[in-house]
Amino acid sequence: MDRVIFHIDVNSAFLSWEAVYRLKILGEETDLREIASVVGGDEKKRHGIVLAKSIPAKKYGIQTGESLAEARKKCPNLTIVPPQHDLYKQCSELFIQLLREYTPCVEQYSIDEAYMDMSGTLSLHGSPVIVANAIKDRIYREFGFTVNIGVSSNKLLAKMASDFKKPNLVHTLFPDEIEKKMWPLPVSELFFVGRATTKKLFAMGIKSIGDLAKADIDILKAHLKKHGEIIHNFANGVDDSVVLTETIANKGYGNSTTVPFDVTDRDTALMILLSLSEMVGARLRKDHVYIRVIAVSIVDCEFHHVSHQITLLEPTNLTNEIHAAACQLFGELWNGEPLRNFGVHTSRIEEQGASRQLSLFELGLKNETNQVKETVDYRITEKPNTLLKREKLEKLDQTIDQIRLRYGMDSIKRANFVNSKLDHMSGGSSSITLPKQKEKGKPFDPAKGLKL
């Protein structure tokens, strides 16, 4: 049976959720979606950019990701509201809960978009277009914000379809519609094609997605390596990825960070992944648990988001093992585009005490088909070919955790962070409470939060 995949994307999510909150909760009369407005972050940091814009703001040429200063130049009367991330998280949770009423196969791709595998549910809900419109209308009726839904037979085409005309619409993009609906589009609109790749394709005379689909794959690989093969497949609508359903009981640990500058070199990226791995590893050890799955996500300067995960042959909570897996994933993901956001996430939690057969340097990684993918060989040495045993790494991590717990997070750090501007432990909120740190406010309690 052919697959039926939906991609649901909230229209101008942050701004829409702000508008609904202000109208329904605060009783304001002005709808931010109907005026030139944006949600913008802290201008003193990298977050001083446009996070979401209204359709009237778009008419001024304001783009997501540009600085607030640039946006003001284009529209002097622009309304700027600060983000409320706790509110957006709650809205996102309500949104995902509703989608799960239609199928258990829901993959939350980001805070404002998700995939649904509707295969096998058509006898319950009706044809794909009918049920997609029903979901779209129900979201607006119950929550007050709009979504676009793309319908197709795979994730890539469903995502491309949801990016067609907005807002509050359903579009299809099945394989027999690719030539008519997708091929005429500029090549820059294809998923996973950023500015740097677009320039290279233009230099090769490839202007449209159709041009890319018909291009010689060997020539593409010669110029773009593995990435050339990937986007050639995408241009032809080829995507075999599955909707990865998250199980509620399968708790995970993860951290992400937005960097205040464009990351364009591999060494800096790997240091950022190390800082995230430090935080994730410390959280795991604090809770006395191990993980088997490690995932890395990256977001480029055009807000294209990609992620990849691998499964370890044996569970771990060691910083070095997490970082090594993250580095391997990053090498498979990155296409050279400047990056602004990094994430390291874990799942498949196991309680401490699970048996381990492999030493650190015997750690194997496997892909989702359970085939052994690569063996990671750690050589932390004082003398050539001297392997530091896993037991020593466990004691090292535990000692570092104890020092940080007693004297503060910055009391000990790796040498390569000493003269670096990068934070040696990065990411969102941590479950570790350390002394000598400034309080950043109490965490948001959904049970006490606002209900739309």
What is the compact description of this entry?
By secondary structure, this protein is α+β, with helices and mostly antiparallel strands. It is 35% helix and 20% strand. The model is unreliable at 353-387 and 428-452 (pLDDT under 50).
Keywords:
452 residues; disordered C terminus; 6-stranded antiparallel beta sheet; alpha+beta
Question: Overview of this structure, please?
Answer:
The protein starts with a strand and ends in a 45-residue tail after the last helix. Strands 9-12-10-11-13-14 form a six-stranded antiparallel β-sheet. The protein is 35% helix and 20% strand. Mean pLDDT is 82; it is low at 353-387 and 428-452. The protein is built from 15 helices and 14 strands. Helix 11 (217-224) packs across helix 12. The chain has 452 residues and is an alpha+beta fold. The longest helix is centred in the middle third of the chain and has 21 residues, at 266-286. A hairpin with a 4-residue loop joins strand 10 (289-300) and strand 11 (305-316).
Please write out the topology.
Layout: E1 5-10, H1 13-24, E2 37-40, E3 50-53, H2 55-58, H3 68-74, E4 79-81, H4 85-99, E5 106-110, E6 113-117, H5 122-125, H6 128-143, E7 147-152, H7 155-162, E8 170-172, H8 178-181, H9 195-203, H10 209-214, H11 217-224, H12 226-235, E9 253-263, H13 266-286, E10 289-300, E11 305-316, H14 319-333, E12 339-351, E13 364-366, E14 372-375, H15 390-407
Parallel strand pairs: 2-4, 7-8
Antiparallel strand pairs: 1-6, 1-7, 2-3, 5-6, 9-12, 10-11, 10-12, 11-13, 13-14
Helix pairs in contact: 11-12, 13-14
